[in-house]
Amino acid sequence: MDNLLQIQNGQAVSRADIPDLDFPLFQQTVLDVTRHSGFVVQFFAYEDEQSTLKLIAVLRSGQMLYVTGCSLADEYPSFTPHCEKFHMFEREIAEQFGVRPTDHPWLKMVRYHENCRGKEDIFGNDYSQDIPGNYPYFTVDGEAIHEVAVGPVHAGIIEPGHFRFQCAGEKVFSLEIQLGYQHRGAEKLLEQAGQPLNRLPVIAESIAGDTAIGHSLCHSQAIEALAGLTVNDGAKIVRTIALELERIANHIGDLGALSGDVAFNPPMAYFGRIRGEFLNLTLTMAGNRFGKGLVRPGGIAFPVLAEHRQILRNKIADETPGIAHVCELLFSAHTVLARFEQTGTVPRHIAEKLGLVGYAGRASGLPYDARITFPTEAYNQVTINNNKKTVGDVFSRASVRREEVKRSLQIIPELLAKEINAEPVAVPASYSLAPDSFVVTINEAWRGEVSHCLLTDKDGSILRYKIKDPSFHNWTGLAMSLRNQGISDFPLCNKSFNLSYCGFDL
User: Fold this and answer.
1) The domain 230-430: what is its CATH number?
2) Phi-psi region of 298 (alpha: psi -120 to 50; beta: other; left: phi over 0)
3) Which of 132, 144, 160, 212 fits 181 for a cystine, CB–CB 3.0-4.6 Å?
4) Average pLDDT over residues 34-63
5) 33 near 4, Cβ under 8 Å?
6) pLDDT, tens digit, for every residue of 134-189?
7) Which residue ranges does the chain devote to CATH 1.10.645.10?
8) Residue closest to 248 by CA, chosen among 404, 374, 54
9) How many Å is the Cα radius of gyration of the chain?
């Protein structure tokens, strides 16, 4: 494919090698891939050194990764009417750069902030007065229709997000989700001129607190590729174990929360305790319960000694039978099955159109798991479970989590049995990035595909840093899961996805 550059996960390439197509050919090339079982990994704009606006597409098809690009004018024909996988990416580009995708069927702001280019806002917002109005919520007309608004301030401790339901009685016709109330400028912080490179990992691991390992791993791999750093096998094993501990802790916590949502309190209490045990194992490895500070470019920042590994072995051996028992209790209870089954269903054809990833995608029958398709670290040394019998409902999403926990509990002892000789890297480290280069990294964090993409300029400074959390793909899937559901099922559907606000609100 002359119009596409085939790349490897975590491979640095020259920016000059990326095809620079005219827009019609770019659009045709990208749509040819995405309309034939291809998916969007990254789709974003940036300004090059000549202030030319460029568009980059990173696509996956089977086990292949491709990148291509083009120059962009102030408007362009939207991709979304031809392929729904682009709809959120195009909205983001419109907001960030003031570029209008003409004929986009759902052109609304993603996050409330002025665009990067100082152009007139295309959504009609007056940023000088800090008035985030003009958000055109979808409405359903009719005397029997009523509207329910939830948030952005919630009764609990979750972050701000607004949920607008259009209902007839208890039945939901449409749910629209508006996020972006705490735009933090994470990407801009990572791009900031003069930013010390040793500060970047601290920002990267704070993108989403419950995915600190997933995001810091993507960041570290990108820096390693651009700086020519090597990671020894022992450090790769430790980083893989840390990512699997993060997966277990979050899945276990959510299974407990799902138990609570259907008023089945014994598993909720037990899973809550178990989540703490696995967070404490991460504490053993990293000095804190969320793994911050452990993964750094070049390896790991703390030694993982023989006594640490023995603590992990013993705790996993102690807790595995209890986890299996409580999972069986949860998934065999008729009252639970009555609430889980055929609730919040996202069928495969919808999941494929939207490009869902992670357990949400696998629960709808999409087999993709980055640990299998694009293995990094020590994942080529272990076998990953493949969930096949799924129908896309709450039960399926919970079942996929259960199976992933079960397999992760087997993966970690397998890795601990290997020789681990990993000296901590120097923090802060001293390195420089390759100039005029491009790299994209992909990892299967606990929610799904996390991807970081970096472009450097002629001096090796970061020209563009693009982050993609799996929630960016999956929030629309949550909205689809409420179609024709009872509104009282929203907490259950919401928790079955458990998407990130801060990972979305970059």
Assistant:
1) 1.10.645.10
2) left
3) 160
4) 95
5) yes
6) 688 999 999 899 999 998 888 777 889 999 999 999 999 999 999 988 878 899 99
7) 230-430
8) 404
9) 22
